[in-house]
Every structure is written in C-alpha cells, then in structure tokens.
Amino acid sequence: MAATSTRRTTLLATGLLVLMTATWGSTFFLIRDLVQHVPSADFLFVRFTIAAIVMAVVFRAQILALPRRQLRLSLLLGALYGCAQLLQTTGLEHTSASVSGFVTGAYVVLTPICGAVILRKRIPGALWVAVLLATVGLGVLSLRGFAVGQGEGLTLAAALLYALHIVGLGQWSTPAQATGMASVQAGVIAAVCLVAALPGGITLPATGGQWASLLYMALVAGAFALWAQTWAQAHLDATRAAIIMTTEPVFAALFAVLFGGESATSRMLLGGALVLAAMYLSELSGRTHPPADPRSAEALHHDAP
User: Fold this and answer.
1) 11: which residues sit within 8 A by CB, 6+ positions away?
2) pTM score of the predicted model
3) What CA–CA distances, in Å, run from 2 to 8, 64, 124, 200?
4) Are 242 and 111 in contact (CB under 8 A)?
5) Which residues contact 189 (CB under 8 A, 6 or more apart)?
6) Which of 56, 96, 112, 185 is the most buried (most CB within 10 A)?
7) Residues 6+ apart with CB under 8 A from 125
8) What's the angle, vertex CA 281, arms to CA 242 and CA 84, rounded to 5?
9) Burial 126-158, CB ≥16 within 10 A → b, else e
10) pLDDT by residue, tens only, the chain of 305 residues
C-alpha cells in the first residue's frame, strides 16, 4: 500500500514538472515580442515582483511557518535562480537564441555532476544514458552552428547555477514546506532582478496585450512554476528532475508551431523524440532503482549546512 502511494506521488511530481516545463515553453513566443518593448532585466523584475506579491498574500501562513533553516535555504535558492535568470538574459544579448537554449540545457549534464561532487551521490548508468540522450536531443532541436564567446560563457554560468538550484531543491525541499519556500524564492528573485534593472530605470509594458502576456508569465510561468518545481523536487531525484525539465524546448517548438506561425521540421521531430526518450528512460530507471527516502528527520538534520 505504501509503495503504491509513493508511486502515485512520484507520478504526480513528474506530471507537475512536465506541466511546469510546458508553461515555460509556452512563454517563448510571448517573450520574443515583449522584450522588444521592455528591457529584459525590467521584464524579469516586474514578472517576479507580481509573482512574489501574489504568493505573499495567498501563502502568508506558509511563509511565516517556515523554520529559520528553511528560510535561509530559500534565500540561497532564490539568489541562485535570480542570478541564473540574469546571466542567461545577458548571455542571450551576445549569442543566438538557439545556441542559448542548447547551452542553458547543459544543466541536464551539470546536475548529476554537481550531485556527485557536492553530495557524493552515485548516479545509475541508465540515468547517464538518459542525460546523453537529452543532450543530443537539445543539440538537434537548438543548434545551427556553434561558436564559444562571451554569450556562451555567461549562459554556461547560468546553466551551472540552474543545476545547483535543482540539486539544492532536491536536497532541501520538503512537501510540507514547498509552498513557503517557493514564495520566499520568488521574492528573492525579484530583488536580484531589481538590482540589475535599477541603473537604467524601470520600463513597464505599454499595452493591454503586453500586460496580459506579463501577467500570464508572472502567475502561471512564475508563481505556479516555482511552487510546482519546489514541491515536485521534494519527491524526485535531482537528475531525473533535470531530465524531465529538458522537455521545455520540445514544448517551445510545439507552441511555436501551433501559435507562433512556425513550421514543424524533421529536426524538431527528431530532437523532441530524443528528449522524450530520455525522459522515459529516466522514469524506467526510477522504477528499477528507487531512491532512498531523504525526508526523514535524521537525514534533514545531517544535511544542515
């Protein structure tokens, strides 16, 4: 009975991560139009400020109930994510969107490496195969030539921070505290983006359509996505979570075809198939090698920094 309940929870966590990456993927063609009118740092600040305010109002009790340790960890995780967002955005100014997407996806490789180095976790061979499949799929989806320069370096640094964020969530997030932790992270991300946006002044969206896009990205791809990732990673291994999250460019391509006026190509189909195969393999690995439960009081106590 307990095994069945655990399996259902794992499936729910996997489904939430897939839904989260689908919402991320749906924002690409919206962002492409919005950042032509609003600077990237300003857009990120307004987006996460709205998300943070809404979450603070709705989840005030969960935030206040956070133990001091979880509050400190949430501040750290939010800073990692906020800096990653800014590095990725700055890198995008110096490289193409396709190369940026591929280099950002390097977190799928960096996550198990960080887990192995920092936490001394052994990664099953099947998961390494899934990591390789996902990386090749990202390359097929994204790359149209590749040169290493400032943009690629900044984006790779962002990928490393995303990987550390994923590892941290997998280690420290708990189901009972996920909502409060996600809300604190949103506030920290907004603060980090404010520091980057202030020097040039804050530019706001100018039309109702731009505000509608921004509200969708703040509430659905911001507040909901942060909560979904934080809760889901309380139940999933960090490497498996990273592999599932590589479905983002697959959804981005799907929404671009459905709503952005782009045409489906053989590269999209092949790359998407490889990424989905990686996700399926990671799920099979999870069934064959179920992770030990890291949520006991003893484990959380010994994980304390």
Assistant:
1) none
2) 0.81
3) 10, 31, 24, 55
4) yes
5) 44, 48, 52, 78, 81, 82, 85
6) 185
7) none
8) 10
9) ebeebbebbbbbbbbbbbeeeeeeebbebbbbb
10) 555 668 888 889 999 999 998 888 787 767 767 877 888 889 999 999 999 999 999 999 999 999 999 999 999 999 999 999 889 888 877 766 666 666 777 888 888 888 888 888 777 777 778 888 877 877 776 666 655 677 778 888 998 999 999 999 999 999 999 999 999 999 999 999 999 999 988 999 989 989 999 999 999 999 999 999 999 999 988 888 888 887 877 787 777 777 766 677 777 778 777 877 777 677 666 555 554 444 433 333 333 33
The token pair that represents 237 in the structure block? 């291994």
Rounded Cα distance, 163 and 253, in Å: 23
51, 226 contact by CB (below 8 A): yes
Contacting residues for 106 by C-beta, under 8 A, at least 6 apart: 135, 156, 159
Contact 245, 170 (CB under 8 A): no
